[in-house]
Amino acid sequence: MSTMTLDAAERTESARSELTGKKVSVSQAEVRKTVGQPFSDTAKLRMRDVNVFYGETQAIHNVSLDIGRNEVVAMIGPSGCGKSTFLRCLNRMNDTIEGCRVEGELSLDGEPIYGAKVDVVPLRARVGMVFQKPNPFPKTIYENVVYGPKIHGIASRRADLDEIVENSLRRAGLWNEVKDRLDKPGTGLSGGQQQRLCIARAIAVSPEVILMDEPCSALDPIATARIEELIDELRENYTIAIVTHSMQQAARVSQRTAYFHLGHLVEVNDTETVFTNPEHELTEAYITGRFG
Ligand SMILES: Nc1ncnc2c1ncn2[C@@H]1O[C@H](COP(=O)(O)OP(=O)(O)OP(=O)(O)O)[C@@H](O)[C@H]1O
Fold first, then answer.
1. Atom 23 of ligand 1: nearest residue by CA position
2. Are 189 and 139 in contact, with CB atoms under 8 Å apart?
3. CA 60–ligand 1 middle distance (angstroms)
4. What is the pLDDT of residues 83-103, one digit of tens each?
5. Which of 75, 137, 235, 273 has its CA 20 to 30 A from that of 250?
6. Any idea where the domains of the chain sit in the sequence?
7. Type and span of the H or E element at 195
């Protein structure tokens, strides 16, 4: 650890001595400041002082973070630290959870995500999502991909839909494997293929941002490697935020990494710095396996 931050200096001696042991326990008071570089000169998504509550319980505390254009930001941290909750704020998926309340400023290209006039349907087309478990619709491969473009009125003519299907499946790295069976059920594909189909489905509506919530946790190492390659290719055209439990995956796919702890954003910086020279002791404790 190279620098001692003001935040670190404020922390108690007892927390320091706990860090020398094998396991670490920390109180909420010790994680109140974010270190590193939460902000980006090329912000696509800008979040300031975000607080999220489930009923009376606060799950996210004053998180401020930018996600830049054409960058992959990985969100890591121990189970229950709020990664998925924060991710779901970015396309208002939390709206679907009863009792969930989001406060703070969140914007996409400078436009408020939570504005009174915002229609969440087009918002979710602009900010697409890929979930932990591949969830193709019980329809053909072709129908899975054209579903979004049809309901969003992006295309209706067969030739246009065919083009969207081919382009989306190519971008998702699946075209060659499925081009001869587009009329077969999406659910008949392997897990890794199904996840790439879900990525194709997200791409088909021309999103600007793709949110991924542990997209490889149900996949084997080969399918995982394929998705990770794909994430790197997709960065050329999209902004990507990915929640992952795998620090190796965060290191492989992201340019910046954000470390969450007990609902606080403790540290965000370029990925190499976070993994080789973290500023915050909590980050170091997590990446060295002392808790999590
Ligand atoms: N629908 C919900 N209702 C009430 N509390 C919730 C709900 N979803 C999450 N929480 C709580 O919010 C906190 C953050 O959970 P969240 O799922 O965002 O964390 P996470 O870091 O993504 O966890 P994991 O890595 O285990 O998926 C936890 O304390 C969790 O119990």
1. 80
2. no
3. 10
4. 999 999 999 999 999 999 999
5. 137
6. 6-287
7. helix 191-203
Strands 264-270 and 35-36: parallel
With a cut of 0.90, is the ipTM above it?
yes
Q: Is 101 near ligand 1, meaning CB less than 6 Å away?
A: no
Whether 54 lines ligand 1, by a CB cut-off of 6 Å, is yes
Task: Based on DSSP, count helices (H) and strands (E) in the chain, helices before strands.
Answer: 12, 11
112 lines ligand 1 (CB under 6 A): no
The span from the first CA to the last CA of the chain, in angstroms, equals 20
Binding site membership of 59 for ligand 1 (Cβ less than 6 Å): yes
Token reading at 28: 């909420």
- pTM for the full predicted model: 0.89
Residues 258, 269: Cα–Cα separation, whole Å: 7
CA distance 258 to 236: 21
Residue nearest to atom 24 of ligand 1 (CA): 79
Indicate the DSSP class of residue 54: E
Q: Which tokens hold the place of 193?
A: 């293929």
6-287 CATH pick, 3.40.50.2000, 3.40.50.300, 3.30.450.20, 3.40.50.150: 3.40.50.300
Gap between the Cα atoms of 141 and 118, Å rounded: 31
Q: Is 85 in the pocket of ligand 1 (CB under 6 A)?
A: yes
pLDDT greater than 80 at residue 261: yes
